[in-house]
Structure formats: C-alpha cells, structure tokens
Specification:
Number of domains of chain A: 2
CATH topology of the largest domain in chain A: Rossmann fold
Low-confidence stretches of chain A: 319-327
Helix content of chain A: 25-40%
Oligomer: heterodimer
Structural class of chain B: mainly alpha
Strand content of chain A: 25-35%
Number of helices of chain A: 11
Distance between the termini of chain B: 28 Å
Largest interface: A-B, 32 and 22 residues
Shape of chain A: elongated
Order of helices and strands of chain B: HHHHHHHHHHHHHHH
CATH class of the largest domain in chain A: Alpha Beta
Mean pLDDT of chain A: 88
Strand content of chain B: under 5%
Chain lengths: 327, 244
Amino acid sequence: MPQPLIDINGLAKTFGPIKAVAGVSFSVDKGEVLGFLGPNGAGKSTTMKMITGYLAPSAGSVFVSGYDVARDPIGAQGEMGYLAEGAPAYGEMTPHQFLNFVAAVRGFKGVEKERAVAIAVDRTQLAQVLHQSIDTLSKGFKRRVGIAQAILHDPPVLIMDEPTDGLDPNQKFAVRRLIASMAKDKAIIISTHILEEVDAVCSRAIIIDRGAIVADGTPGELAARSRYQDAVTVEVNSTDAQGARKALKALPGVNDMLDISLDGDMRGGGAVLTLFPEPGQRLIEKVSALVTERGWKVRSLVAESGRLEDVFRACTTADAGNGGAGQ
Amino acid sequence: MSQVWNIFKRELASYFATPLAFVFIVAFLFATGVFTFYIGDFFRAGRADLQAFFMFHPWLYLFLIPAISMRLWAEERKSGTLEILLTLPIPIWASVLGKFLAAWAFAGLALILTFPIWISVNLLGDPDNGVIIASYVGSFLLAGGYLAIGAAISAMTSNQVIAFVVSVVVCFLFMASGLPLVLDAVSGWAPQFVINTVASFSFLSHFQSIQKGVIDLRDLVFFAALIGFWLFVNTVLIEQRKAG
C-alpha cells in the first residue's frame, strides 16, 4: 500500500510541563485539502512546525513523501512548501530578491529560476511591489510574499499556517481560489480559525483542542453533527406566538426548542422559534403542515442546515454546557 | 556547498541593504585612524612600519566585531525568519558556515579599506612589506576568531544587545588570557601546565607572534581550531533550538 504524502503518527510535543500537542495521528493524501481548526493555543502551529522540521517532536513520527522528517529533514523539506505563522520574511530584501534567494536554495538556476519566480509572482499577484523592500509592504502583500515562497517550487506538499490572515475579502477570495486550483495534485494542510474558509476550500477538516484531535471528517460530516442539522426556524407574529409555542414544542420528533421573544421589538412582537429534532428526524414537512392547518401568520420558515461554528464550539469548549453536538 | 554560497550571498547583501555597513566601515576607519595617529603616535615614532596601526586591532575588534556578529542569529530569531531558514532544505552547518563567512568577508572588506595607511607608510619610508602582509593576515584571522565566538553567542538569544555584551565579555577573556589580569586569577593555585594552557588561548600572544612577520603554523592552527570549535558550538546551539 503506498504511503500517503503526509503521514503522522502519535505526534507529541511538550514544552517543560506544558503539553502542546498530545499524540495526534492523521494522514493527508494527494488531492486533499485538510483544514486544521482549533482555538488559539490548541497546538495547530506547533503541529505544523513539527511537520516542517522546525521543531523536533517529543514523540511520534512524521513522514512527508516517504521521507522521515526526523531522520532526513532536508529530503522532506525539499518536498514541502511552508508558510509559517505570521508569514515571516527578510524585511530588508525586496520580494524579488527574497524569491530569488528561495529559488536558489531550492536548486533552481538561470532561466528556470526566473521562470519559477515569475510564475509564483503571477499566481500571488505581487508584480506591483516586486522591487519594494518587504518591510514597507502592507500585511496583505507580506502574506502573499510568504505564499509565493511556499509555492515557488511547486511542491507536492503544502503546509500553510493561516494563509488568509490579514487579507481583505477580495484577497481572501483570491488566495482560496489559488489553493483550490492547486488542490488536485497536492496534499495541502491549512490552519485557520475562519470557519467559512473550511467550507470554501477544504475537502476535510480536523478540529484540534488542547493538543488532541476532537473531530475529523468532511466539512459536511462535521456540520451534520451540529444540532442545527435539520432544525427548523419559524418566525410567527404576536397573535399566534402563544399557540405556536405550545403546539410546536409538542410536535413529535422535536427534541428542544429555542424561543426568542420579539415582544417590544420594532418588528411588532411575535417570536422566533427554532425547533431541534431528535436524532434522525426531519421536521420541516411536519412544521409546514402544522402552520397551514392552524392558519398562522408566519413571517419566515427556514429549514436549517448544520453549522460548523456550532460544532467547533461544542468540541472545543468542554464545559460550555450546551452539549448539542457532542456525540 | 552551493547552499553555503546562497546563504553567504544573502547575508552579505543584507549588511549593505541597511546603513549598517557604511556606519561600521566609517567607524572602523575612523577608530583605526585615531588609535594609530594619536594614541599610537605613528608620526613621532619615526619608524616606517605599521606597528602603531596593528597593535590596537585586538582592542578595536573587541567592540567592533561583536557589533557585526550580534545580529547574525539573534535577528533571525527575533523576526521569525529563523523558521524560514530552518525549514528550507539547507543543512544547519551550511547556514552557520555561510553566515560566518559573510560576516568575515565584511570584516575583511573593512580591513582592506585601511589600505591608504599602507600606501602612506610606503611613500614616507621603506617598510618591510612582508611584515605588513603578515600583520594583515594576522588581523584578519583575529577578526575571524572574534566573529566565530560572537556568532555562536548570537545564536543563544533573540536579543541583540545581550548578544553584543556577552560577546564582548567572552572575546575579552580570550583576548586577554595571556595577560596578568587573567593569569593572576589562575596562577595562585593551578599547576604550571594549566597556566600555560590558559595563556596559550590568548588571541593577543598569537596575534603578536604573527605581527612579528612570521606566520607560524601553530598560530594558523590555533585560529583555525578556534573558529572551527565555535562554529561547531554554533551548529549545536541551532540544532538544540529544534528541541524547544
């Protein structure tokens, strides 16, 4: 069986008494974009630093394209592009000098070097600041310089720590499109705490909390673990609110109801009622039938879908006490 | 080796990307001038040699070389670029060597720019140019020794000021280990061979012996071994960083 491009086993890192990463195992294969989610300090960056050979693990192993990062870091690093946290770069250099340095280190020479740099510049749209020192660039351009040096040698494995941090919405869109365009022949890991990004570019997501993996699946699968999966939200006006509360709550298959009263609200009162189903139940047909039967004046009726954000909160805040998605 | 060259080029260029290079070279030339003409009494000595010029180099380097070496690693650690350097496919020894050679070449350039004084002394009299060349070689080796120490110390901290101060202190100990100041601390209790060993580490005595115009193999070996040792320490220190 061929080894996946990134293969991680029992990876752990302790800093003195602090367990930053407590034994994570996963693998990423060609064509996958793995979203690495977790609150600040969960161990995302530490894990990435170990994959790229910047930090030596306390335990466990990392293989990249078959190279053991601990034994042959140079071999593994040749197969990887890495955007480090905060996109560090030599501030006194211009993007052009910096990218040429990286290209030379990556073994490019002459015309090939020029071509590699030109392609990276083009893909990250750096042309207009190419000869300006990196220190003087805006945050967005600095980030793109970091991305350019990571993709310069068209590596089979790409590790990016918060690639869209500090970018404006247009730039974010461009970077996501860039990642998506490279996805099919690479194994990519991106860390983020922007959850929409996971939906936008990732084929798989891992949620990490306190150094351990707490959820692993496609964005759809993870979202389905949210209590909003197949939930229904109805907004009724004030005359019907009281009756609707009772009748909807009593509906078979309803597990719980979130009741937001709009009394005193400028919309003229009423209530927004969100009905959470029991596992496996679909409520939308039942609710809409009930609405028609009773003749309620309904302002909106929405069939909800799972919310990644909800799952993220449930997975990563152990004592929040709203255990909707915990399975 | 090509990676050493890549690092060397980048590092050397970085000196000239900021005013640092020019400030340093001007300060170096100014200081050599002051020491040679005022304190060394170059003119009144009435001799056609550069004794007055070279005799202050160990003291001058004590402060100027740590100013070059302090940024070598501390700056990379501070700005986070160390993470780039260590995740590019470059062996650590190649980075260590490339950075050291760049700093050494820069120090060498500053030294070469003192050539007007050599020309002057040749116009004024008839000096022994062999001695002067040997002294330049000795001065360059001396700078390399200080630099290797400073580079390793720079790898221990992300604070350039700390790197500078500690480097000055350590370099001073190495320079002065042949002087009574250091030897007196040892001579009261240690056996003779220990005293001799400590004294033999002295930059000053090795530099002075080269300055007489004879490049002795022992002096070359001393500087080569010293530089090699500190570059090794430097590599180990960077390697150690990975363990966190």
